[in-house]
Write a structure and sequence with these properties.
single chain; alpha/beta; five-stranded mixed sheet
């Protein structure tokens, strides 16, 4: 491989960066058990749980904050009412589209049989819950369908694919998550332009044909903490979820600039966002023929390290512009390919220009971001797209940062460093 650091990139000088802090709404739920108890106590669940009734609790793979505590608290409430709860993975094709892989993902989030105090029952088998108007079948987890009652749990937030007044939530978990690989694949193959409509129509079919008792919706603040936990009744679930979605948009974080020459993310992965890098944060949809976000406009992106919780599924790498060989070598092609073929947004799994090491990838992005001299590059460095309270901006952006009321400058200019192996030296957040 050509030594680009000593040829094309030898004169690239990265701009100095300064640590800043964004301030967002910090209200959050401190006691998960109390919050879950209170909202379920106000719901119709007590009228539906008969002594000994089996209750399937659907838990997904999106890295919902405190999901292990929320799941356990829900299990305890079902037990308190005399039911027999169990957990089912609700994550479409994730975990290589095999039951064991999906249980492993739950365990990584702390959702274990020991911690939650109930069995985890996993299968990729589905039943047909009905058909949409155009004849498309709606599939649903067979194990969950055989329970007396079902409680899906999910975070309500802006979606990485759906743009508009709805996004990810309990509806999506029922249709895509509990649809398992077959259901997720069937819905996604209808195409992104009709995904939102499909979720609404298919979730209505599921609630009409499956014993959905209540849904548990979670809204997080900008610090990835539960801010709202609410039990939703099937009769009003769609309407109430849309209201929670509007609240989630108010609370979500964003990067403090509309135009960025170069964004460096130290981490990416399925546990951080369903698209590896949250498309709403980076302003890239990454789906051909679909419009991009209005903001932010980022010229070049590099993501350095795939999280261990991603289990080799490098979805989102296609949203970046440069990568390096060791990262490419670490990809589990089966996991990535299964996800891409299911979702159909294959561009997000495409491997970008691949260089020898991290330093080459970073300097290549700086060299090609259309900004000269290098000291004028508008650069940001973040830990990942889920944690952007504290980040670093180049000196060229300081004046703009000082004009923002929710931004504090908390550091001094510093140079980005690489070790003897040309690996980026992590920053402190």
């Amino acid at each position: 491989m050509v030594d680009y650091l000593n040829t094309i990139l030898k004169n690239v000088e990265l701009p100095e960066v300064v640590k800043i802090r964004q301030n967002f709404d910090r209200n959050y739920i401190e006691d998960i058990d109390v919050a879950v108890h209170e909202t379920i106590s106000k719901s119709s669940l007590a009228d539906k749980v008969r002594p000994g009734a089996s209750v399937a609790i659907g838990v997904g793979s999106r890295g919902v904050a405190e999901i292990h505590k929320i799941a356990r608290a829900t299990v305890n409430e079902v037990k308190r009412l005399g039911g027999k709860p169990f957990i089912v993975p609700a994550m479409g094709s994730h975990g290589n589209a095999i039951a064991e892989g999906q249980v492993r993902i739950l365990n990584d989030y702390g959702v274990t049989e020991e911690y939650c105090g109930c069995p985890i029952r996993a299968s990729m088998d589905v039943v047909c819950a009905g058909h949409m108007e155009d004849g498309t079948p709606v599939y649903f987890d067979r194990i969950a369908s055989e329970a007396d009652l079902i409680i899906p749990i999910n975070r309500v937030k802006v979606h990485t694919d759906i743009v508009g007044n709805s996004g990810s939530g309990v509806m999506k978990l029922m249709v895509i998550g509990l649809g398992k690989h077959k259901g997720a694949s069937t819905i996604h193959r209808r195409g992104l332009p009709v995904l939102k409509r499909s979720l609404i129509e298919a979730s209505k079919i599921i609630m009409d044909t499956m014993p959905i008792a209540i849904g548990i919706a979670v809204v997080e603040n900008a610090y990835h903490q539960p801010a709202i936990i609410r039990a939703l009744e099937p009769e009003t679930l769609q309407e109430e979820e849309l209201k929670l979605f509007a609240k989630s948009k108010e609370l979500m974080a964003s990067l403090p600039a509309d135009q960025i020459d170069f964004l460096l993310a130290e981490q990416f992965g399925k546990d951080i966002s369903g698209s590896g890098l949250d498309t709403n944060i980076i302003g890239r949809m990454g789906v051909w023929r679909e419009p991009e976000f209005e903001r932010p406009a980022i010229t070049k992106i590099v993501a350095l390290h795939m999280t261990p919780e991603a289990h080799g599924n490098a979805v989102g790498i296609g949203l970046t512009d440069f990568t390096y060989q060791a990262l490419v070598d670490s990809i589990d092609r089966d996991a990535l390919n299964t996800n891409m073929l299911t979702a159909t947004y294959v561009q997000r799994g495409m491997i970008p220009v691949t260089l020898a090491n991290e330093e080459e990838a970073i300097k290549a992005a700086a060299d090609t971001c259309w900004r000269q001299p290098y000291r004028d590059i508008r650069m940001m460095v973040i830990k990942n797209t889920a944690e952007i309270e504290t980040l670093y901006v180049s000196v060229a952006m300081l004046e703009e940062m000082r004009s923002r009321s929710n931004v504090e400058i908390i550091g001094e200019p510093m140079k980005l460093q690489f070790d003897e192996h040309h690996c980026f030296v992590p920053l402190e957040y």
